[in-house]
Amino acid sequence: MAATQQNPFTALPDGSLLEMDFLDSSWFQPHVSTRTFPSPEEVRSVALTQRGLRWPAKFENLGLIVKFGRQISTQEAINLWAIRKVIQNQTLVPEVYGWRVVQNGEFPEVFIYMQLVQGPTLAEQWDSMLVHDKQTVCNDLHVFVSRYREFRQNESAQVIGSVSHGLVPDRCLKQLPYLKLFPTRASFQDWLSWLWRRHDPDPQSIEDPWREILSDRGPIVFTHGDLRPTNIIVTTTSPTRLVSVIDWEQAGWYPDYWESCKARYTAAPDGEWWGWIDHFVTPNEAAYESFSFYVGALGLF
């Protein structure tokens, strides 16, 4: 078994800053003083000529993509910066170059400038791939996922939340009440159990057999949180190989079963992809039973 890596994410960028340039990134090197980002106005204008304001703007000639909007957070840029610092094969994670925050009204608009990874998504290639190609790319995913799942926090400061020790960034949890930084697995799982019973005058009087299934003693590991084929970039040639995993906005510290549960959550149970998920992330059938009940009871499907 590979050794775990303790506290890999240190000296993180300050996500509250309105501007951040990662001057050691390939965007700025070797001409640090002369290269600038497209302005927010340019980004919006380009996005309107492409897929619209709800989608990232691509600057193909610059090898640049800009993810932007009021729902975007600088935490995603921090996630990208952090994982590239500690992962051995950095090409599997897009390089982040910087961000800008436009204060306009109650909700600021965030612009994250990052590397445009070339290649089709696994979703685009899947139906035309041979079984051997599917095995190869899932093996690549297994190696990559296993690598970042080795990361652990310090024993004295374990939390379930973002890499910056902020709120849990998972999309399916963001709108739920009393979301917070959870100091233990038990507190996180107690919260999930309480949520579906909270409208009863006496929530504790309702038995929850699914809570008993979730162990309080398992590890908390680094998790991508959205391993779906649209977030996986692959080669066009056979054997199909993994190029990059994108969309790290939900990444953070979660119970060890969360990656598998979320991958299944985003897949069609009767689709072929569902049957391949266990090839790259270890399944936990009991935990998935609890997870499925909670997301169903909370109306998250």
From TrEMBL:
The keyword Secreted does not apply. InterPro entries: AGP_Transferase, Aminoglycoside_PTrfase, Kinase-like_dom_sf. Residues 76-255 form the Aminoglycoside phosphotransferase domain. GO terms for molecular function: transferase activity. The keyword Secreted does not apply. Keywords: Transferase. This is Phosphotransferase enzyme family protein. The lineage of its organism: Eukaryota, Fungi, Dikarya, Ascomycota, Pezizomycotina.
